[in-house]
Amino acid sequence: MQTYQLIATAAAGIEALVGKELRDLGYETKVENGRVRFQGTMKDVIRTNLWLRTADRVKIIVGEFDACSFEELFDRTESIAWENLLPLDAKFPVEGKSHNSQLHNVPSVQAITKKAIVQRLSNAYHRRTRLAESGATYPLEVAINKDHVLLTLDTSGAGLFKRGYRKNKGGAPLKENMAAALVMLAHWFPDNPFVDPVCGSGTIPIEAALYGHNIAPGINRSFICEQWVNLVPDGLSDEVHDEADAKAIYDIELDIHGYDIDQNMIDIAQENSRAAGLTHDIQFKQLAVKDWHTSKVNGVIVANPPYGERLSDEASVHELYRQMGELYRPMTTWSKYILTADMEFEKYYGAKATKRRKLYNGALRTDLFQYWGKKDRSKIKALQ
């Protein structure tokens, strides 16, 4: 089976997490801005699409070169053996982007790239008429940065954050892969309590449950590469899905709770958890932040509360932060991870974070304010 040069794309700030996921899966990686490079066969392509919790997409690198003129772009693109990837009837839309490059007109870049591929395929398949493009879709991208061209083939189709369980959402949903990133950054162990006090449509608790059960996040969806009969051997996709399903740990009991002040959001969260097959793994309840109390220890709180730019007015948001601080500060064995775009969060929370990490929720700059708890070791020993 052929080995491909691959990249897993990622939101700014979580590339290192994607790299760790890939290394945990057994791949050698090179982490770059917005992506992680690795190598693999088509089986690895399907496997990483299934398993990567924090990545956006998995792409095959088709070509990489420098180009400062449209002639160079055409010639270098046309020299690639596209017939090894694209069958005669392939539909191959070409998206484009360009930054800090001499070839800055994106529509022209796309058109020249497409023309070069058409010429290559027409010659390879001995076609004098227009290519039909009536078969499976092979989404291509030409990305130019500082005159360096990267030609890629998207194997994912819909973004990997689309797990398939979100049947409904609230007013400001967090993408599933960003929610998974927050769970991973919290260093949560499945034998400890996990709480999202402002759970909205339930994305963070659901991602925690998938992680806790070691369920592949893409297990209930398909990927565009699975339609490529010329590249994917018959039965390979089923084989990889079966291998992933066999690794799930369903018999572990999880202590995951999601709360929200809005009963409508709790109803949506429950609907989404049912769609994910996690009805009995997460307890959702309508409850205000200030009304929650617990005697449990060594837990983790992960929250994406509303911030000034979304859903609520500034005064009520700051009051929410104050309530969080008042309630959470005495909980010294609990770790708290709170994502917000409000850079004054610590002021209203009433304590300086142990660590801050810059993340992007879409195009919005946010910070993950981390308050690390000190584990009660006596409780851990008592549970063993």
UniProtKB/TrEMBL annotation:
Pfam families, A to Z: RlmL_1st, THUMP, UPF0020
Keyword RNA-binding: yes
InterPro entries with a match to the protein in the record: DNA_methylase_N6_adenine_CS, RlmKL-like_Mtase, RlmKL-like_Mtase_CS, RlmL_1st, SAM-dependent_MTases_sf, THUMP_dom
Residue stretches making up the THUMP domain: 44-155
UniProt KW keywords: Methyltransferase, RNA-binding, Transferase
Tree of life domain: Bacteria
Gene Ontology MF terms: RNA binding; rRNA (guanine-N2-)-methyltransferase activity; rRNA (guanine-N7-)-methyltransferase activity
Record's keyword annotation contains Ribosomal protein: no
Alphabetical list of PROSITE patterns matching this protein: N6_MTASE, THUMP, UPF0020
Name this polypeptide is given: Class I SAM-dependent RNA methyltransferase
Lineage, opening ranks: Bacteria, Bacillati, Bacillota, Bacilli, Lactobacillales
